[in-house]
Amino acid sequence: MLKYSFGLLATVLVFLSSCRDSVEPNIPYSEFDTGAYLRTIARTSTTFNFFNLGASNFALTLEAVDIEDGATVENVEIRVRHRRLIPGVGLSFTPANDVLVKTLQKTDFAPNDQSRFLRTSFVVTAAEAIAAVGLTEAEIEGGDVFEFRLVLNDKFGRSFSTNNVTTNVAGAPFYASPFQYNVSVICPSDLAGTYAFDALETFCGDTFSGSTTWTAVAATPGSYTVSDGTFGAWQSCYPDTWGNGNVRIADACGRLTMSGTDKYGDSYSMTVISSTPEVLTFEWVNTYGEFGTVAVKSNAGKPWPQFR
Predict the structure, then answer these.
(1) What is the pLDDT of residues 256-289, one digit of tens each?
(2) Is 179 in the same domain as 204?
(3) Domain count of the chain?
(4) Is 196 helix (H, G, I), strand (E, B) or coil?
(5) At residue 118, does pLDDT exceed 80?
(6) pLDDT band at 173 (very low <50, low <70, confident <90, very high)
(7) For residue 195, what pLDDT is reported?
(8) In the chain, which residue ranges form alpha helices assigned H by DSSP?
(9) Does a structural domain hold residue 25?
(10) What is the mean predicted confidence (pLDDT) over 132-143?
(11) Residue 38 in domain
């Protein structure tokens, strides 16, 4: 019985296998339509520096992927619009719809030694983007975003962009073709260090010189813990020690603010009086009524940015 069963099973398998091999597929694979996309090879520059817009740019290296190894590309439109989040209101766009800032022609795509697909690299300066959306450099603020959208037009009259790209092609690492890139206007902050200062005024009338250390807060970019929120005033006036106080200075695109409390629970704030590359002068005050004015000197080779 076992021999008969195994023999019957083997016969059926052979029959099914032979039938499968002899049947032509019903799906016309040769007639499938194919599209095209732009694989992101390198994001050379995807931020604008608020403090140096003149030298900022948006730059990518792209690879055209299609059935002809990139040869179906006719051109690629680079379009842009400006976006700003207005607190309590929402997002504001300028203009309402993106506008053309640059066009890549098929001749801009060339062979490379890394793959069989054609590649191109391009640069759009911050100045070009700002002009394209109808704004001036003076109207740009830290935290603004420039939305760049690519539109690939092929020789068959088809267009590929954010409106018809699939989630997988847009986000998967292999395809890496989002067709849209958000370029933020950032305000780099690098204030960590130890600085010499002069206490020009204190609540007790003392004046003196000292040093202060600002330590970057890893979880909060642009935020720095100061070694002594009174900048030596307690030590000079009482004397008292700073102890376990936690006062921070935050740099938000050149606008300095102070927050936090001392070991007694009093909170701190500051007002910038003047700012030059060599000396930053500000007044600090706490809720206990203590105050002081300090002139903090920049370190060699590291001038202060313009603060307010």
Answers:
(1) 999 999 999 999 999 999 999 999 999 999 999 9
(2) no
(3) 2
(4) strand
(5) yes
(6) confident
(7) 98
(8) 2-22, 126-132, 167-171, 233-237
(9) no
(10) 95
(11) yes
Q: For residue 112, is pLDDT > 90? A: yes
Residue with tokens 């759009």: 124
- The domain boundary, picked from 135, 165, 186, lies at 186
**Would you state the pLDDT for residue 42?**
95
For residue 147, the cross-strand partners are 81, 182
Assess contact for 213 and 196: CB atoms under 8 A.
no
3-state secondary structure of 99: strand
Please report, for the domain that includes residue 80, its CATH number: 2.60.40.1940
CATH classification of the domain holding 257: 2.40.128
219 in the same domain as 110: no
For residue 188, cis peptide bond before it (omega within 30 degrees of 0): no
- Put the strands of the sheet holding 246-252 in their side by side order: 255-261, 246-252, 223-226, 208-216, 193-202, 291-297, 279-286, 268-275
Q: Mark whether 157 and 271 lie in a shared domain.
A: no
CB 258 within 8 A of CB 249: yes
**Residue 29 pLDDT exceeds 50:** no
Q: Residue 78: what are its φ and ψ, rounded to 5°?
A: -110, 115
Reported in sequence order, the residue ranges of 165-267 that DSSP labels E, i.e. its strands, are: 180-186, 193-202, 208-216, 223-226, 246-252, 255-261
* 184: its two tokens: 């933020």
Domain boundary among 136, 165, 186: 186
Residue 182 lies in a domain: yes
Query: What are the start-end ranges of the H helices in 42-141?
Result: 126-132
* Residues 143 and 174 occupy one common structural domain: yes
**pLDDT surpasses 50 at 18:** no
**Residue 155 clears pLDDT 80, i.e. is over it:** yes
Distance CA 51, CA 57 (A): 13
Are residues 221 and 149 part of one domain? Answer: no
26 is a domain residue: no
The whole domain housing 101 covers 34-186
What tokens does 114 get?
Answer: 């890394």
pTM: 0.71
